Structures are given as structure tokens and as C-alpha cells.
Amino acid sequence: MANKILSFTKKMNLPFVKFVVTKGWYLRLVNKKNKNAKFRRLSKEEKLEIKQYWRSYGKNISTDWCAYFSYGSGIVDKKFVPESLYYGEILRGLNDYGMGALHHKNVADQIFSSKQPKTILRKDENVLMNGNYEPISLEKGLKLCEEQGSVIIKPSTGTYGGSGIDFWSKEEGERKLREVIGSLDKIIIQEVVKSHPFLESIHPESLNTLRVVTLLVDGKPVHLSTILRMGRNNKKVDNYSAGGIICPINKEGRLFETAVQSDQSVITKHPDGFVFKGKKVPFFNEIINDAYRQHYRVPYFKMISWDFSLSPEGVPILIEANIPSGQLDLHQLNIGSIFGEYTDRVLDFVYKDKKL
User: Fold this and answer.
1) DSSP conformation letters of 227-254
2) What confidence score (pLDDT) does residue 9 get?
3) Spatial CA neighbour of 178 closest among 134, 141, 127
4) For residue 255, what pLDDT is reported?
5) pTM
6) For the chain, what percentages of helix, strand and coil (3-state, to nearest 5) are there?
7) What domains lie within the chain, and their CATH numbers?
8) Partners of 64 in the beta sheet?
9) How far apart are CA 287 and CA 111, in angstroms?
10) Can you list the residues of the chain whose pLDDT is less than 70?
């Protein structure tokens, strides 16, 4: 009986949750406009086409979404997905939010078979464990980190935009490490990954990664888009919201000539000199194929954004599976509609109960 009541309560609350999320993301767009973000001037014909397309799914959207996403790239696409619908409705239609706990970093190596960074320590529900999930004392845990020399410390959940990520090296002494481990109840401590020379040459201070998005269509994963995420200004993280740079990559693994940043500026090279045009990501097909293999392990999520690096030898390293969502503007500011040729099928699935 209790389970039925809980299920009923969740169903009652869901429309309210969708409303709040959808409205919140729309207000974010309005705020961008008020802060003088740049919007492309759309023609009457373009606006009409956008309106008609989304009305076919029962949605009356603002054409400002398309005007915002298209400003830097010059791509005008009626199928640009509004962030309000993406986060408020579409992701909930594509993914099983009841399985959302699978996004915790401390379970990733139980789920995925990819090469992953070596885990030194993990802590969940205030239980400290080693990399093999065996309980361990704080003193022994500190010793493992000292033997490693340097580590990266992350909250095991809730690290949007790189928030909460820290680094520690033996030279800093154990006091800081002891404080961090004691202050958080959900953390993962891993080795600092050494990456492939191609990625390292862009900005050696950060681990530069590829964000790969896959979608399950007819029960098989397809490749939606890939972007290269790069750090800058000597920062150790490559996150967009931390000032990182994003450059789109085509389906053959070649970087686009230009990158459009979150501030809508268009650049052709990294501030440290790396020119995007013509560069090909080594072992690109191996990365995409590994993303495909891993997606089969979590079919509860039809859409997944994967963060991959490359070992010095060219082996794909799975840094994180972004479940159940991934940042939308990273892609649409640079590439076009996130779902591309599959947009109609995704929206038919979410809003018309058709097969995906």
C-alpha cells in the first residue's frame, strides 16, 4: 500500500516539477537577453517555420531559442531544442529517472568496462573504502594517496561544471587531504590521468576531453555529436562553465575551423596557439565505438553524454558518463540541433508515444 501511495505522489508531483524546470530555463533565456546576450535577427519566414514545427508537437515556444543558438555559428535550424523543453520534458521522456543513482562516480567501474582512471579511495555514506570497495581506515587511506603522489578529488555526485573538484599532491602534506576526506560523505579520489600527446599539447595543465553524445535508436546506439573540451589560463579543469573552450568535431574526427564560446565569441585557435582547422583526433573511431559498447550496459537511458580522454598509447579512457543529462548549449551553440537527423523521431517518441 505504501508503494502505491508513493507512486501516486510522484505522478502528482511530476507535472509541477516539469513546470518549474521548464519555466526556470525559459527565465534563464530572458535573463540572457536582459544582459545583452547576442541574438540573431530571424526573418518572419524563419520565425513562422520554427513556430509551426513545434506546434506540431503541441508546443508554443519562443523563437529566441533559435536566435540565441544560431548567432555565433550562423546555423538557423527550426529543430534547435529549447533548453526549457530539453531539461523539463525531453530528457525525462528519454531516460528512466528512477535509475538516476547510476550517475554516481563510485559505481562507474562496476557498470562500465572501459579503461577508467585508477581509484585510490572512495567514500559513500561516510564509509571509507579503497579502490576494491573494501573498508579502510583513514590512516591507511592517507598512506595510499601519499604512495600515489598526486590525486584528483571529486564529489561522487553533483560535480556540474567541475564544481567541488580539487587536486592534492604529496608536497602539500596530509592535513588538507585529511580535511577534505573528513568534510564530505560522498567522494572519489583517483589518479591524475596522463593523456595522449595530441590532447596534452593543447593545454597541458588540464585534462582535455571529448564529450561524445550517443542515442539509442531501434535498440542500437548512434553518434549524435562530439566536442573537444579544453582548459585555458592554466586551470586544471576543462569545464565550459569554468572558462574552458569547446570545439566541435565532425563524424570523421576532424575539428571544425571555429569554436563558438558560451559568451558567443568565435575563435579559430586556443589562446595558447593550438589552431583547430584541419586537426584530426587520433583514435577517434575507437572512442566512438567504446561509447557504443558502454551504452548497451545502461539502456535505461536512451541519451548519454560521455567524457573520454586518451591514454598516451591511444586507449580510450572513460572519465565520466553524464547520466541522465548533458549540457545542451555546448553542442547547439556550435553544431546545430542536438538530435540532428533524429529530431523528429525523438520528439515523436516523447510527445506522441511513437517508437524510437
Assistant:
1) EEEE--TT-S---GGGT-EEEEE-TTSB
2) 41
3) 141
4) 97
5) 0.91
6) 40, 20, 40
7) 2-97 (no CATH), 118-191 (3.30.1490), 195-352 (3.30.470.20)
8) none
9) 17
10) 1-14, 16, 158-163, 237-243
User: What values do phi and psi take at 216, rounded to 5?
Assistant: -85, 120
Three-class SS state of 204: coil
Residue 3 pLDDT? 44
C-alpha cell at 112: 562500465
Cell numbers linked to 208: 582535455
Separation in Å, CA 5 to CA 11, 12, 85: 10, 11, 28
Q: How far apart, in whole angstroms, are the C-alpha atoms of residue 146 and residue 128?
A: 16
pLDDT value of residue 6: 37
C-alpha radius of gyration, the chain, whole number:
21
* pLDDT of the residue at 100: 80
Dihedral (Cα; 268, 273, 279, 282), 10-degree rounding: -140
First to last CA, the chain: 34
The residues, ordered by sequence, that sit 6+ positions from 256 with a Cβ below 8 Å of its Cβ are 247, 248, 249, 250, 276, 277, 334
Residue whose C-alpha is closest to residue 331's, from 260, 268, 232 = 260
Dihedral sign for Cα atoms in the order 15, 17, 21, 24: positive
Most distant CA pair in the chain: distance in Å?
A: 68
